[in-house]
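One-letter codes give the sequence; each number marks local geometry. A record appears below:


***
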Amino acid sequence: MLDDFLIRAALAGVGVAIAAAPLGCFVVWRRMAYFGEATAHAAILGVALSLALSMSIFAGTLFAALVMALLITGLTQRSYAMDTLLGVVAHSSLAVGLVAVSLMEGVRVDLMGYLFGDILAVSRGDLAVIWLGAAAVCALVLWRWSALLTATLNPDLATASGIDPRREQLIFTLALAVTVAVAIKVVGVLLIVALLIIPAAAARPFSRTPEVMAAIAMLIGISAALGGLRLSYLYDTPTGPTIVCMLAGAFLVANLRALFQTANRA
């Protein structure tokens, strides 16, 4: 079955959607969309590091994303404004990574694939990495769900309950770095944040509890991945952007539905 590239692509999209959905909810709740973008952009530096040291792309992107996320977390505890720092880090890391990759001699690099993803080129090895990473992220989030949620909603309450908000931030950062590393093959660094944020944002109008929101976000992400892959195959469009267009459509439908319901109650 895995000899079919479309089957591998579908499984890759589903795996990334499963990992991204619960994390995306925390990104939305914490209002950290730009933090996720800066971490994702740092993945290009990881690609350059991987090519320079002849190591796994996953290992390089995971290392770079994790270091960048920890650096940002540390600097924001000082005198730097969050939006300013993230703006500098996000665009600088992307630019430096692109320049570093372009300067490498004797190495053929598909920059468009890293920027926008190349889900149709997913191999069996890539698929194994994606699903192992997704399983690790889901296990980590399930294990720390209550603590992460408490630290997100009320850090003071978390501290009073014996939960260290900084530790939970570190766990969230680790899970986000793993998700970025496994998603780079599917949607690329420029679209990873869309896969994190849009399913969660689309699920919000339908959700009464955090758990329901995470579950609905997962279903939206999976549906968009499969639907975008199908439309891309039928109409010969770029697969990563097509998946994001499906997510944007889901967000629009969800909010129009919520708007109509509010109007009917009025």
